[in-house]
Input
Amino acid sequence: MNINTNSLVSITEANQNFSKVARLVDENGVAIILKNNVPRYVIIEFSEYQAEQVTNNEDVKSIAGRLIAKHRAAFEELAK
Output
């Protein structure tokens, strides 16, 4: 993951000036909050978060489909 250094904010600065963090997210799509000079938190737009959740759900659906196909006989026996 490439990190834009313009998106980095210390936790102290984020606490004192959250509107700056919100502007960074609006401008760059992400803000990374540092705690003890280490990236600790990521703030993204809610729409991007929702898109990520859909992707995770699709992964779960594909895994479930594969497991059902692999163990179909056992599932059919249990359904009796």
